[in-house]
Design brief:
This protein is mostly helical and about 500 residues long. It has 2 domains: about 230 residues, no CATH class; about 200 residues, no CATH class. About 80% of the residues lie in helices and about 0% in strands. The chain has 17 helices and 2 strands. A two-stranded antiparallel ribbon has the order 1-2. Helix 4 runs antiparallel to helix 5, helix 6 packs antiparallel against helix 7 and helix 10 packs across helix 13. The longest helix is centred in the C-terminal third of the chain and has 43 residues. The termini are far apart.
């Protein structure tokens, strides 16, 4: 959330007191979690409208199936490049190569749709619904994929409020469009899905307008980012492992005998998915606190440390700055965990009883309580991996993400065989082991930070010459030859006219 950082620094630096602290946390909550809250509200309103217009339970489940599958699998696909995108944009801004940012956006979207589009087409053809609903589901997947990429590019722009504005406009537009279609006599299922498509298209156009406004056009080149992808390929592995790790425990139960089957190729497990949904919501305070801590307190000490190195500080000054940075980092992590622990205890003890009144049975409430603890630990793991990437420990972040993915899958399979009383314990175990490993890795890395800063840097810059770089070079050469031929034709035409 680079965009929100500028505003938070100003609020916490220029103003004091409780009210301004509340304002800073409120801005963070709205920007980081507001879109998710709006999305949940939109889905609930859509399902309520479908009920009012006579949609059967099966139709409401089909609508939720399409929305859930489109969101999950578009996130997995886009997340494979999101961490690389963040690094690429940061390098372009630092090196003043702003004209490469917008062309890279179109290139990344093209590559993601080229990979995910054909798979999505094949999948929707296996679903026994009308052609119109299949088409809507396909468009939903493609639009959501593009939107994940758009939000990564918008996070580097100070106009961060446009993300929230886009979700407000899109949610209202989706509900309005669906209501109009239902009033016109269109079936509730078709109206709800196409209304959602219209809403997401509104979001896409709002975000696209902001991106075009904020970044220069540059030279159109779809594969401009390929050389950087050669250099930072490990970030792709981190992104894939983190996305799959977040969902793989659900996938295990989707493939079990306890799954609910809407279509032959469309499954979910309500006994596990519903508790997961409520458990995920409990870690919002941790994510908000992490953004505030990193953007306001830790980043200041981190900058002071590297300024001491860059501007002639002696070894004692450098070590003192590092100790101060470490103290702030550990203190902020501890405070974040303490606040979230209180929230988790309240969620486990009180909210669990409330969920029983909403229709969750005893087993689902117990699964929810285990998953609350699991997501509490997962939040620490995610923050730790972000901090490893903050210090450019890409290998450590990759190993931590891969460890979490493997343990989450194995642990979920084991708990599936042990019985419903243990469901959720596999995710909790995977998060606990991975989080401990990541935090220990972070501590060891910081203890040897001077070595990593001074001794691990290459003496000479060597150009990457892998397959992606060769592809980009050949395409660039082809484009240059085409421009040269076009210029020669134009010169010949001018000479002929003379």
């Amino acid at each position: 959330m680079a965009g929100v950082g500028f505003e938070l620094k100003r609020i916490f630096r220029d103003n004091g007191g409780v009210l301004n602290s509340i304002k800073g946390y409120s801005i963070t909550a709205v920007v980081t979690e507001g879109p998710m809250v709006l999305m949940i509200a939109m889905l609930l309103v859509m399902r309520y409208m479908m009920t009012r217009f006579g949609a059967a339970y099966g139709e409401r489940e089909i609508f939720l199936f399409f929305m859930t599958y489109a969101m999950i699998f578009s996130h997995i696909l886009a997340n494979s490049l999101l961490m690389f995108i963040n690094r690429f944009i940061s390098d372009c801004i630092y090196q003043e190569r702003l004209d490469e940012i917008l062309p890279s956006f179109f290139g990344i979207v093209f590559c993601l749709l080229l990979i995910g589009g054909p798979v999505a087409v094949i999948y929707v053809l296996t679903i026994p619904v009308s052609l119109g609903i299949r088409l809507a589901g396909l468009i939903l997947f493609c639009v959501m994929t593009i939107m994940w990429v758009q939000m990564a590019y918008l996070s580097a722009v100070k106009r961060y409020e446009c993300e929230l504005l886009g979700f407000v406009a899109g949610s209202c537009g989706a509900i309005l469009a669906a209501a109009i279609m239902m009033l016109l006599g269109i079936s509730p299922l078709c109206a709800a899905i196409w209304g959602s498509v219209i809403g997401f298209l509104i979001m896409l156009f709002v975000y696209m307008a902001q991106i075009l406004y904020c970044y220069p056009m540059g030279t159109f080149h779809l594969f401009l980012f390929f050389p950087q992808l050669e250099r930072y390929w490990i970030l792709v592995v981190v992104g894939v492992c983190m996305a799959l790790g977040l969902y793989v425990h659900n996938f295990v139960f989707w493939g079990s005998e306890f799954c609910n089957r809407i279509f032959p190729t469309g499954v979910f497990c309500s006994k596990y998915d519903v508790p997961t949904f409520f458990a995920v919501l409990t870690i919002m305070p941790m994510l908000i606190q992490f953004v505030v801590s990193v953007e306001t307190r830790f980043s200041v000490k981190n900058r002071a440390y590297f300024d001491t190195i860059l501007y002639g500080g002696c070894l004692d000054d450098i070590r003192a700055a590092k100790r101060e940075m470490q103290d702030v980092l550990y203190a902020e992590l501890l405070r974040m965990m303490e606040i979230q622990l209180i929230v988790t205890i309240l969620a486990v003890t009180f909210l669990g009883n409330v969920l029983k009144t909403l229709g969750l049975d005893y087993d689902m409430v117990e699964i929810y309580r285990l998953l609350c603890l699991g997501y509490y630990i997962y939040g620490l793991l995610k923050c730790g991996i972000v901090l490893l990437l903050y210090f450019d420990d890409r290998k450590g972040a990759c190993l931590g993400a891969a460890l979490f993915l493997g343990l989450s899958m194995i642990g979920s399979i084991l708990t599936l065989t042990l019985g419903v009383k243990t469901w959720g314990a596999g995710f909790l175990f995977a998060g606990a082991v991975s989080a401990v490993w990541v935090i220990l890795r972070l501590k060891r890395y910081l203890d040897r930070l001077e070595y990593h800063v001074f001794c691990e840097q290459p003496l000479f810059t060597m150009e990457e010459t892998g397959v992606f770089t060769r592809i980009e070079n050949r395409l660039a050469q082809s484009e240059q030859r085409r421009k040269l031929r076009r210029k020669e034709r134009e010169e010949d035409l001018e000479a002929g006219m003379e």
